[in-house]
Amino acid sequence: MRNAKIEIHALRMLMERNRVSSLLHISVGVVVGLVASTSVPAWRCLVFSAGLAMPILLQMRLSRHVARQGWSDASILSAKTWFDYLALWVGCMWGFAGVFLFPSDAPAKQLFLTFVMGGMSLSAVGTQGMRLRTCYMSVLPGMVPLGLRYMLEGGLSNLLSGGLILLYVVVLVSLARKINDFMLQAFRLQAEKDELLLDVQRQADELEVARKAAEQANLSKSRFLAQASHDLRQPLHALSLFVETLPDAESPEEHEEILGRVRQSLDVLTKLFDSLLDVSLLDTGGIQPRLQVFRPHDLFLEVQRDFELVAKACNATLRVAPSKLQVRSDPVLVRRMLQNLVSNAIRHSEGQTVLIGTRLRGGRVSLQVCDTGKGIPDTERARIFEEFARLDSARMGEKATPGLGLGLSIVQRVADELGLSIDLKSDEGRGSIFSINGFERVSGAEEASTVSRPAPGGSIDAARVVVLDDDPATLAATELLLKRWGCTVEASHTPDGLADLDPDVIICDYELSPELTGLEVIDALAGTPAAGVPAIIISGHTSKELQAAVARRGIPLLHKPIRPAQLRSALLNALANSDKASGARQ
Questions:
Q1: CATH superfamily of the 289-442 domain
Q2: What is the DSSP track for 327-351?
Q3: CATH fold label, 464-584
Q4: Assessment of whether the complete model's pTM goes beyond 0.70
Q5: Those residues with Cβ within 8 angstroms of residue 384's Cβ, 6 or more apart along the chain or in another chain
Q6: What is the pLDDT of residue 190?
Q7: Please, which of 36, 157, 201, 331 could form a disulfide with 101 given CB 3.0 to 4.6 Å?
């Protein structure tokens, strides 16, 4: 590659020859013809002068043609052969002069012709030495015939002159090679310098792009934190006001209304933390897809159950279209996307219908969430997938909780992680269709995994649960909630005495102390009566290392803050997977 560049560079230098030097070359040829015309026939002089001028003028024209094409590599290479032939033509014309313009009876004119041709050959070596092929074509056809002509004249002096001229040709060839080596080395150094400059420029451009990306990331992070801070303060502020007014409620109805407002604020706060957790996991690469075969219809039923109360509060109807299709993907991440899309559809479709279903397109499966709400304006369709982008709150139902502006952004980023695409079709006044496209369809011959979910009417009455947490308030609240569900609870700040217990489930905070983690507590139960008891780890950490550690042990991980429904669902699943589940319900 570098040799090709050097070749092109040498050719360009030859073609960019000074126009004045070319015209001087022609003038020298005319002078030689005029001097020789007194000793040889005039037609020979005319043939020489015209024959020398013609290839030089054609070389100049060829160079202008290449220059008009911007001295591109392709144009230079395409002109290379013609340029060499024209150089050979010039050399042959000087050879013609050495043979046919040689004045046999005029030693002074012989000496003049010899010096002129020797000087022109030396000049050719100096100007064309960067390319030996062209140089040889110019020098050898001119000087060799002159030396031979001296020898043909006979006599000792002519033989010596011819031999010296041929020796001079050898010296010229040697000089041309040395000049060529020097020029090639210079070209190589120049090429290396150009490559280094290009590399430095490329690195500078990359650094500039990285700098701008970092600045944009910092601005986005600042905007993200500012908006998150605002959205966190809103429900917290509402909570403080509602809790302050709760003791002064004048009637059971007012008391219940305030509690409902408190629950709504807590729901908004929990959803915001869930969204922030999702964004954090995506930013840190904490989401690792685990592909398996499953039926999307099973996920649809779960999501329908999750949002039944939300849909009822918004006076919306949530329906699921039956489907027997099977796909290969990560059901946990797909469910998260569906939850965000359905939540978004319900909030913007008060009094309308939301439908979840599948569609087969070109051998690939699409999951769709359709609503008959007010639709999305054209100007908003690209923006809604940006973080914290929210439509006008007036478009939402009166009883719907306000959106946090992260749901659709998370859907887009999770889809990218799974190699899927998101498509939106919407007509104002008629509704919207969100599609998750690109799922691999799996034939019915490959058995689908059953998506783990508790039965709607699952019971945890009389389940023996051990709760370990270093925070007194969290420990007391969890114990109270579990007892209200009918569980027998053993709550503690430390794992002391845990090995002697025989619980059905262990709920353990991950960071029990700076020196002890919940996973270490579970691992220490090996060989005790509590070994093999289903466990649930609760943590506020989102590191990939923690997720990998709990995944290796097959332990579910819940991230704080946790909704009671989440804890109940995890508890039901743990009991269902426990060999002691039946005993816990006796």
A1: Histidine kinase-like ATPase, C-terminal domain (3.30.565.10)
A2: EEE-HHHHHHHHHHHHHHHHHT-TT
A3: Rossmann fold (3.40.50)
A4: no
A5: 376, 391, 408, 424
A6: 78
A7: 36
